[in-house]
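Entry for the shared binder. Reason: the reviewer on the internal report wants the predicted structure included alongside the sequence.
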Amino acid sequence: MSTETSTWAHVCALEDIPLLGSRVVTADSGDIAIFRTDGDRVFAVHDKCPHKGGPLSQGIVHGDTVTCPLHSWKIRLESGEAVAPDVGCTRGFDVKVENGQVLLKA
């Protein structure tokens, strides 16, 4: 039986994250990048590319993918997995929008 101790933490208003942009939140597990797509979907992943640790928050968002600014690896925001032919994964985090506010499971 799992003992779930995580709670939802308020991060910011959705409008505080630019379309096709991100916002970085510092957590005990490291920096988390929260992305907003052009369709107002939000995703949260560890702010390190699985390739060389590049800051994904500084990458280019296109669709539900971000391109790492260091070596152009494409990472699926929903799963944190690299797009083939690259292989690797960055940790994802639960995130949601309620009443225009972004909440992160911390």
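Summary line for the report: The two ends are 20 Å apart (CA to CA).
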